[in-house]
Fold:
Amino acid sequence: MQVKKAVIIAAGFGTRFLPATKAQPKELMPIVDKPVLEFIVEEMIDSGIKEIIFVVNKNKIAIENHFDRLFELEYTLEKSNKMHLLEKIKAIHDKIKIAYVRQWAPLGTAHALLSAKEFIGDEPFAFSDADSVIDAKVPVTKQLIDIFKETGKPIVGVKQAEGEERKFLSRYGNIYGKEIKDNLYKIEDSVEKPDPDKGEQASPDGLYIAGMRNILTPDIFPFLEKLKPSKGGEYYVNEGIKEYIKNEEMHALVYEGKYYDTGDKLGYLKANVEFALKHKEVGDSFKDYLHDLKL
Structure:
């Protein structure tokens, strides 16, 4: 079963990065010289995705402009013989189709996904947020698609907390399940940020959703449509998964790769430092600079 479509939700306001995000979408903030969102789009392309729909709000026109062609710039680069830069900005246009739909109100991830329902049709699809960058030899979405092709079951990408990391499980959506083979679990429950005060225990296996990477099928939509709002009035895909697994089978894969939460200030800074150290142009000089700081 082929997975050719992806939904990427990018409708948040980026309040944690104000004032930087007042006029610029947080998804376009750079990691060195490439916007966060471009890392995710490249991951989708490298995973075999052919069509992407972005779920945005009315303030995200800059995202549309970024992934559109700018012929004046292309002409200038070509005339200046800056072909390496020309190839960089043209690379995505030739490899994937991109469309946009607006989420009319900030009502959570499930509401955002439902906004793209008509685009999906009856096909399986990848589903991602727009601020988690995952550095992996094999793109995480491809890791998930490969397992989906074997099993035919929807699948969620997770990480496994160990040692001191387990203290932070309550910050994330937790997955509870039974391991059916190495790093692959059948999901038995899902809790959005478990609260010990309510008797909600963290995942005993330490499974948590680190970066929203899912392969879903259209039969998730009826469960999303029946969700009741959270206390904040929002609807979450994780809650839809909780209902889905009462009726259908879904898996979780502990993926290989390093996760950076660029929607968090510290996570964003870590990503910039680590990607800068690997950057072909500035990596060595940046490493020398950090060494000279004698931190």
Q: What stands out?
A: The chain has a mean pLDDT of 91.
